[in-house]
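in:
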């Protein structure tokens, strides 16, 4: 089993139960080729198969995956005893029993207000339960593999409806939608991908077995012969994240084991472990980006200094060569940073870490449960560049891993989450973090403004001296004063550009805002009368935090390192 500190490529399965018997060997061969193709395209992104183990397509795909040594997670739509009754043949029941021994089982709870007696026999309640299982698979997979005859169908929870739901978010019938975001309701979710294998059903001779095709949805469903470029980029970013996780695994583990970083969060939470990894990587790349910024702006200032030195003091060719050296040095540093994508990784990993932080606390507080089709990844950064969809992909696989590890979620756990997540302004939690970070940033900003003003007024003072007393100074001393004035102007301009690039003002405003929302949540929680109200407050707090971190990411992406106009 791969490490849970790395993300996976989750393939959800939906398929007909009554596949044409003569086509089964060819279907197995195509499924095997499909899984091997994914492994070849993304060798450092382990494939996990999400299959309900229903007769027909689900069982065939699960068996092929198991034969290839892949993990299979089985979300069962009904209690195991009832689910066994749905297998109409001894062969499919035997296969189900075998798969239970090798797959990781996740028994989905019945929908709210539905008892076991309501789903004990075929009917609308049972159909809605199957549809809920399909929604769960759709919500947690990166690719939906559909063994489908291509024909539309009105059957609730059937393969045709699951494909339509995955691509367009529409599912007729009295059932919750997978996402409750405005963009998804308008059909603007462009992050869903289906691999369609055209199959025949029963004894039909209507359609031969064809090669698979990729389906995406924009204004309408679009077919592709190969992996769409947008999704290929997302999966490759996931691979890069996995590579960084492996590269720095020892350092991350050592940092997590240090006494000053140890906290009360249970190490059994796989989402928290992934958060700690993403947070560590974000801090590493942040330091690299800050180092590059300082070097680039210092070199820019040095270019200005050498220019004034050359024009007013020492017109020697070595001086102008220094100008070129500083320029090429700055270009080289930026090119190295751009080639290694330090800034992109810093912003992406920081956004991922904050999303996982909320996801982890929601899981521990019992907010994201199996009854609801809405999860943290469904509401995070949908307005951003579609390339950032890899972050939601990681959150999808993290959500699945979290659900596989049972977690107590009583009132005591909710109170623990409140203490760890929100805390207070003096010690612990986000309130203490934002209070300290705000004070530090404000001090740094005041110093930066003071330094800029000092350069400005020093230059103005020199200009006043020159205007009043220049006729009394020797020409060489006049050149020296003019050079000093120019150098101070360059220093002030470089300093202002550096401050703009760091976005300190905006960051201080964000910290103040985060202090307010966490403080408001703390006050609301103090007046809550029960665990249900506390969970509602924590859910709202998480949604506000996710929205704010999305804005932060967008702001910094609009100020990329390579686009400096200094």
């Amino acid at each position: 089993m791969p490490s849970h500190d790395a993300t996976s490529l989750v393939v959800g399965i939906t398929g007909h139960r009554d596949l044409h018997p003569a086509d089964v060997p060819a279907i197995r061969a195509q499924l095997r080729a499909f899984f091997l193709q994914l492994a070849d395209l993304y060798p450092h992104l382990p494939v996990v198969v999400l299959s309900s183990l229903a007769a027909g397509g689900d069982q065939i795909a699960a068996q092929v995956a198991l034969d290839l040594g892949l993990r299979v997670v089985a979300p069962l739509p009904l209690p195991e005893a009832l689910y066994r009754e749905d297998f109409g043949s001894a062969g499919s029941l035997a296969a189900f029993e075998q798969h239970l021994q090798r797959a990781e089982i996740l028994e989905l709870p019945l929908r709210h207000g539905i008892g076991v007696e309501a789903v004990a026999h075929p009917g609308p309640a049972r159909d809605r339960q199957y549809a809920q299982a399909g929604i769960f698979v759709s919500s947690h997979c990166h690719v939906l593999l559909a063994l489908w005859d291509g024909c539309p169908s009105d059957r609730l929870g059937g393969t045709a409806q699951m494909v339509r739901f995955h691509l367009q978010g529409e599912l007729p019938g009295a059932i919750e939608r997978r996402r409750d975001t405005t963009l998804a309701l308008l059909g603007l979710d462009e992050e869903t991908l289906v691999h369609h294998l055209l199959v025949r059903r029963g004894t039909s001779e209507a359609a031969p077995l064809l090669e698979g095709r990729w389906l995406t949805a924009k204004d309408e469903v679009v077919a592709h012969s190969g992996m769409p470029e947008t999704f290929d980029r997302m999966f490759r970013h996931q691979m890069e994240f996995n590579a960084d996780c492996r590269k720095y695994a020892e350092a991350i583990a050592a940092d997590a084991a240090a006494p000053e970083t140890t906290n009360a969060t249970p190490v059994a939470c796989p989402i928290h472990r992934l958060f700690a990894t993403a947070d560590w990587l974000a801090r590493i790349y942040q330091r690299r980006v800050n180092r590059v910024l300082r070097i680039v702006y210092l070199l820019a200032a040095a270019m200005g200094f050498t220019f004034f030195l050359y024009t007013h003091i020492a017109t020697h060719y070595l001086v102008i060569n220094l100008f070129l050296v500083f320029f090429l040095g700055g270009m080289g540093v930026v090119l190295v940073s751009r080639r290694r994508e330090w800034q992109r990784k810093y912003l992406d990993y920081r956004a991922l870490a904050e999303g996982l932080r909320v996801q982890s606390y929601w899981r521990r507080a019992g907010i994201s449960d199996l009854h609801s089709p809405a999860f943290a990844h469904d509401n995070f950064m949908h307005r951003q560049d579609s390339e950032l969809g890899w972050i939601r992909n990681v959150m999808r696989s993290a959500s699945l891993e979290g659900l596989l590890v049972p977690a107590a979620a009583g009132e005591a756990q909710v109170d623990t989450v409140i203490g760890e997540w929100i805390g207070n302004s003096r010690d612990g939690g986000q309130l203490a973090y934002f209070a300290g970070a705000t004070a530090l940033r404000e001090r740094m900003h005041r110093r930066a403004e003071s330094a800029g003003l000092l350069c400005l007024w020093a230059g103005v003072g020199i200009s006043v001296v020159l205007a009043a007393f220049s006729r009394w100074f020797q020409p060489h001393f006049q050149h020296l004063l003019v050079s000093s004035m120019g150098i101070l102007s360059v220093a002030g301009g470089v300093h202002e550009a550096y401050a703009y690039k760091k976005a300190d003002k905006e960051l201080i405003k964000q910290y103040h805002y985060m202090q307010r929302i966490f403080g408001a949540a703390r006050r609301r929680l103090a007046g809550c009368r029960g665990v249900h109200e506390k969970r509602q407050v924590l859910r709202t707090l998480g949604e506000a935090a996710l929205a704010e971190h999305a804005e932060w990411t967008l702001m910094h992406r609009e100020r990329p390192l390579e686009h400096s106009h200094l």
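note: Confidence is low (pLDDT under 50) at residues 1-5, 176-189, 259-264.
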